[in-house]
What we know:
alpha/beta, Spore Coat Polysaccharide Biosynthesis Protein SpsA, Chain A, 23% strand
Amino acid sequence: MHDAVTGIVLAGGLGRRMGGVDKGLQLLRGQTMVAHVLARLAPQVNALIINANQNADAYAALGAPYEARVVPDLIGGYAGPLAGLQAGLAAARTPLVMTVPCDSPFLPLDLVNRLRVALNAHLAQVAVARTGDQPHPVFALVRADVRDNLEAFLAGGGRKIDAWYAALAVVEVPFDDEAEAFENINTREELREFEGRKQLGSDHD
């Protein structure tokens, strides 16, 4: 399909702000954070990839119900979300890929569709979610043919996602009606806070 999408869950970081643990495998309401993300993203895409640089077996088991593949970064040094996108693009077989972080368990259930509509309407290369004045660059729908551009950017030492976007045709898509869906969990304190909420992502289920 010309608009088929591979979802890429970015779980390749070191979790420094959470004490160096693998964030995607931390439990929230009895499930790992990546399990929450996979459950919300899977119905929106045609295939799934988990980008992880450690605990590959654990991620493979969590992704198995969705036939998700686990791929590590192709470059060393835990180089950030662009390295995860690069690895996902190398493994994907669809013309579009959708990146989401492993620590945002409430992501919108209409995320891919709204970004795809804007991507096509604006003939853009990348569609990024935005709430208010704040873009969320790791929530991005990307045309797979930007891979060569990304490879060159990374080969030149580039790592910052907004610096890479600056050279591309990008459309930002407002999600002010679902702003809470982009909340992410970076610390143990935030994990405890969300654990204590009466309903998890109830506004978006």
